[in-house]
Amino acid sequence: MWLAIAATALPVPYLSQQPGPVFNTLGSLGEQDFIEITNAETYPTSGQLDMTTVREVGGPQRTITLGEAVYGWLNPDISVIPRRANYPDDITAEQARTQSTRAFASSQEIALGAVLRELGIPFTENVFVVDVISDRPAALFLKSNDQILSVNGVQVNSIGGTIEEVRKTSPGNKATIVILRDDSELVFEIPTVAAPDSESAGSIGAFLTSEINSEIEANFADQRVGGPSAGLVFALAIYDQLTLGELVGNAHIAVTGTITTTGEVGSIGGIRQKMIGAKKAGATVFLLPIDNCAEAVQRIPAGLRAIPVKTLREAISVLEKLKSDASGDLPSCSAG
Fold it and tell me: Do 198 and 139 belong to one domain?
């Protein structure tokens, strides 16, 4: 018996994901507006547009025990996944925190860019290195705050465009990357390795962020949250403030998904926990990336309508139809 009890305290290479706090992006946090737009005319908003989060236990910060893992496996609200699914083996706690924090800040910048593009407001975008993976090729060449100017002779001005050009370089070949560091242009021939999702696509192991240059600025309250998955909800909240007419109306809607400056919505992790958090917070509609549908469809809480979207424009259209009661033909998630 004592051996069994002691075994539950043994560390295991897993982490657990639980529903995290929910924030109304059209509201306030303490005495500060959740999102404050400056240098532009703004309009009143109403309703709730919730950002959902996941509380992660384990990972580089600390190791969970066998007992915690078993509890998570038995709890339908918790997912237990291999630590390696989210983090490289050699990443430190400090690196993980830095990457997560910077990804969150980058999602705010990118969301503003997506809205400005949607509204036809001019802006420029620069791409910077946030960090590099220590055992990947980029670690030998690139540093934090390097600005990426071009890849293989193609000028790049978005994260997606940069990644796309690197992926065109087959693993084992070299990508020619021009950067700006301390006001000096440098050219590197960086070998590529296989991307995590494709053995035929190239990767160099660098984390990137965007800087949007525009007179219009969006300032965010400090939520002490990390990761890129709130990009879509940030974009919708900014769009609502910058356009006449209330986009949400009196509805209570939750949203998750990454965003690019060209408006594409990307998949996220922890979809089950985010839906649970949305339902507990009172949301009746949940917008999610279409690529998360297959995972979400069997786990949608009763009373929560899950609507998939591919782009910011689609998400705006969904909210407009929901407000006008013309939502009968809206898509829903299916396992296919």
Answer: yes
Q: Calculate the dihedral angle through the C-alpha atoms of 93, 99, 102, 108, rounding to the nearest 10 degrees.
A: -120
**Nearest alpha-carbon partner for 23 in 262, 180, 254:** 254
**pLDDT per residue over 32-91, tens digit each?**
899 999 999 999 999 999 999 998 877 777 787 787 878 777 778 888 888 777 777 777
Give the number of domains in the chain: 2
- 3-state SS assignment for residue 23: strand
Distance in angstroms (rounded) separating the CA atoms of residues 236 and 229:
13
Domain assignment present for 94:
no
Q: Where does 68-183 show beta strands of DSSP type E?
A: 79-82, 124-132, 147-151, 154-155, 174-181
65-79, 126-140, 254-268, 305-319, range with the lowest pLDDT: 65-79
CA 26 – CA 44 distance, rounded (Å): 10
Tell me which residue has tokens 């259209």: 317
Q: What is the pLDDT of residue 324?
A: 82
Convert the pLDDT of each residue in 204-244 to its tens digit: 999 888 889 999 999 998 767 778 889 999 999 999 999 99
pLDDT exceeds cutoff 50 at 309: yes
Task: Give domain status of residue 151, yes or no.
Answer: yes
Domain assignment present for residue 228? The answer is yes
Give the model's pLDDT for residue 134. Answer: 81
Q: Distance between CA 30 and CA 51 in Å, rounded?
A: 16
Going by C-alpha positions, the residue among 267, 265, 165 that lies closest to residue 208 is 165
Q: Count Cα neighbours of 212 within 13 Å in the Cβ-side half-sphere.
A: 25
Q: Considering 212, 236, 268, which residue would you say is the last residue of a domain?
A: 212
Instruction: Mark whether 185 and 223 lie in a shared domain.
Output: no
Six-digit token string for 199: 């053995």
Say whether both 137 and 202 belong to one domain: yes
User: Range of 139's domain?
Assistant: 124-212
CB of 126 closer than 8 Å to CB of 210 = yes
Q: Are residues 231 and 296 in the same domain?
A: yes
